[in-house]
Design a protein that fits this description.
The chain is mainly alpha-helical. Helices cover 64% and strands 3% of the residues.
Length: 286
């Protein structure tokens, strides 16, 4: 990374910190708690924010914090609001800076997660075939077998173990790799890419953005070979279903295939890992 980029990122972090202080003392949209404190127990911060009001200004995010079911529902139904990150110039500039000149997938090749209608609607129709309930339920026996394998490795070990390391982190990566029909030998690399991709929009930790972008480039090149191999083949895996998906004569482009597979990896891996860890923690507490 160049000296200029390093300097600009450092300045950006200072500016973001100042804006969060402004948010904390002017409107309460920032609690002032550290990321570690929020991970440990975010609920006091949520309660304090809700007590301030249903809508709070956020200068740090160049946007608004919307709290409460009714207010959130109103926003979701209002066409003036959207999910396209490219509409937030502050975020765009921060991501471009962190990527150090490399293309940023959420901006340059967005998935349906960061697109609005009609683009979102089109992609959702084309990819819905891979999420049919019958297909998802058919995965259950194999997922249970994967969990059993993870647990069997623990049983032969010490009494204390790291649940995240042994179960919560590898499990979703293995399941998603199998859903996509990827070779078993590639799963360790697949998991490494997944871990790196999480930092794609970490504007408060810009040093994570460029490694995430690099991981995305490597994953795209890898998926390009896999997709090319699977073209013309029949199969039940997700990639084969995406290749054959068609809606009124429309099909997914190569970039849309990459974006959808990457979305499945990032959205499915991190959330499932945290769900398992948080779920067991709450079970032990209650």
């Amino acid at each position: 990374m160049s000296l200029r980029s390093t300097l600009l990122q450092s300045i950006g972090k200072v500016v973001l910190k100042v804006l969060r202080i402004v948010d904390r003392f002017t409107n309460g949209s920032d609690s002032g708690r550290s990321p570690a404190q929020m991970r440990q127990d975010p609920y006091p911060a949520f309660r304090e924010a809700r007590e301030r009001g249903p809508v709070l200004r956020s200068y740090a995010n160049r946007g608004w914090v919307v709290l409460g079911f009714d207010a959130a529902q109103a926003v979701f139904k209002d066409p003036r609001f959207g999910s396209d990150l490219r509409r937030n110039k502050w975020l765009v500039n921060a991501l471009r800076l962190g990527a150090n000149g490399r293309p940023v997938p959420p901006l340059d090749n967005p998935s349906m997660l960061t697109l609005d209608a009609p683009d979102h609607t089109r992609l959702r129709k084309l990819t819905s075939r891979g999420f049919l309930n019958k297909y998802i339920q058919s995965l259950r026996p194999n997922i249970e077998a994967i969990v059993e394998r993870c647990l069997s490795d623990i049983e032969a070990g010490p009494e204390r173990f790291d649940l995240i390391d042994k179960v919560a982190n590898p499990l979703p990566a293995i399941v998603i790799a199998e859903m996509l029909g990827l070779p078993e030998a590639d799963r360790e690399q697949f998991q490494a890419w997944s871990n790196a991709l999480i930092g794609a929009t970490s504007i408060d930790q810009p040093e994570l953005i460029e490694p995430s972008v690099i991981a995305g480039e490597e994953l795209e090149a890898y998926l390009a070979d896999i997709i090319e191999t699977k073209r013309g083949q029949s199969g039940d895996d997700f990639i084969c279903q995406l290749i054959s998906a068609e809606e009124e004569g429309d099909r997914l482009s190569a970039n849309e295939l990459y974006a959808t597979c990457t979305l499945l990896l990032t959205a499915g891996h991190e959330t499932t890992t945290r769900l398992i860890g948080n779920g067991l923690y709450l079970l032990l507490q209650h």
